[in-house]
Amino acid sequence: MTNPQAFRDAQAAFGMDPSKMTETFRATAEKSMEQSREAYARMKTAADEATKTLEATIENAHSGSLNLTKRALDGMRTQAEMNFSHLEKLAGVKSVSEFIELQTSFFRQQVELATRQARDIQSASQSAAREVLQPSREAAERAAGKTEF
């Protein structure tokens, strides 16, 4: 068995005061706990921000997708209406020259419509891409503002 007095004498010989060791240990443990709490708070904040960014990105992607789908469906509807109207006009053709004139006009309208629709879809796609990337861009800017070098 160890003699408690001998242990205290040995500690004193090495310059270690047991009461101060306890205080030092307690202070170190408290400091470690505080650092752990701060680290946890930073991680929680970062996770919350990442979640918000992801949710906004998904919402923007969904909205952009719906917009593109709507535009595509509108384009198909316009195309179908144009085709039906053209067929009605063709049914009343009285001469070859009138047929050629109708076909030429219809072809020109088709090209113009396709060009407008392509521009519209391209513009909507670019807008959707910007909106999808916006939450990530804002999060990166916030993170860069918080970063200390």
From TrEMBL:
Ranges of residues in domain Phasin: 43-137
Listed Basic and acidic residues bias regions: 138-149
Top-rank lineage group of the source organism: Bacteria
Parts of the chain that traverse the membrane: none
InterPro entries in the cross-refs: Phasin
Region listing for Disordered, in residue ranges: 1-20, 123-149
Name the UniProt record assigns to this protein: Phasin
Organism for this UniProt entry: Aureimonas ureilytica
Taxonomic path: Bacteria, Pseudomonadati, Pseudomonadota, Alphaproteobacteria, Hyphomicrobiales
